[in-house]
Q: What sequence folds into this?
């Protein structure tokens, strides 16, 4: 399967714990995006990378959230000191440099208890 | 900040009826994209509109981009049960950070 993959698919954690998610984009894609989606809403942009450079970060993004893409391939999204409000589906997407079309992965569903 | 509103939130149609969802942005867009998300699935890209007044068709789906590049619509002719899902518009101001609407959930009764 050459699509976008995310790991884990589900994560249950207790409030206050740190969690890290991984995204493997389509291999030829330069751009990688992170979104958060809650029930009944559209995906909400969090951040995006072009190769290893983080080019944009949502102003809504708490400083508890950090993302990396160290070698311009896979990316990780870490949430520190999780809160119940962080419960959501975290989606990763990737695209070619000169294309608008974004390919989404299956997402990581986070539940904070 | 930029907001994208989408109506209706939900539409239930009989198979064979038409369906339309509308999208309005608070700011002028560089382009607008449409995605479909099946229940339990992830968003899948349908189309991108770039030019003012642009109209594109994909079989039974017709997409329009407004003259002012602030609104868009998706029209499905003669719906089928395979059209079930949530349709999202996503506005791009040129920064590549998409702002998604809240989506229109389509239910098709066989």
A:
């Amino acid at each position: 399967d050459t699509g976008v993959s995310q790991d884990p698919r589900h994560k249950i954690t207790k409030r206050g714990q740190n969690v890290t998610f991984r995204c493997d984009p389509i291999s030829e894609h330069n751009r990688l995006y992170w979104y958060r989606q809650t029930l009944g809403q559209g995906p909400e942009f969090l951040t995006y990378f072009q190769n290893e450079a983080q080019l944009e970060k949502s102003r809504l993004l708490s400083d508890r959230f950090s993302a990396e893409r160290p070698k311009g391939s896979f990316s990780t999204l870490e949430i520190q000191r999780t809160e119940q409000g962080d419960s959501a589906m975290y989606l990763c997407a990737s695209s070619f440099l000169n294309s608008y079309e974004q390919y989404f992965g299956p997402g990581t569903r986070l539940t904070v208890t | 900040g930029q907001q994208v509103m989408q109506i209706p939130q939900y539409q239930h149609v009989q198979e064979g009826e038409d369906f339309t969802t509308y999208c309005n942005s608070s700011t002028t867009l560089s382009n607008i994209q449409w995605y479909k998300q099946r229940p339990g699935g992830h968003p899948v890209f349908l189309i991108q509109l770039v030019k003012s007044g642009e109209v594109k068709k994909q079989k039974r789906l017709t997409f329009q981009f407004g003259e002012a590049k602030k609104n868009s619509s998706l029209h499905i002719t003669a719906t089928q049960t395979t059209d079930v899902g949530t349709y999202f518009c996503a506005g791009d101001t040129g920064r590549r950070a998409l702002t998604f609407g809240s989506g229109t959930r389509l239910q098709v009764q066989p």
Summary: Residues 24 and 59 of chain B are 24 Å apart (CA to CA). The interface with chain A takes residues 1, 4, 6, 31, 33, 35, 41-45, 48, 88, 90, 92, 95-103 of chain B (CB under 8 Å). The mean pLDDT of chain B is 96.
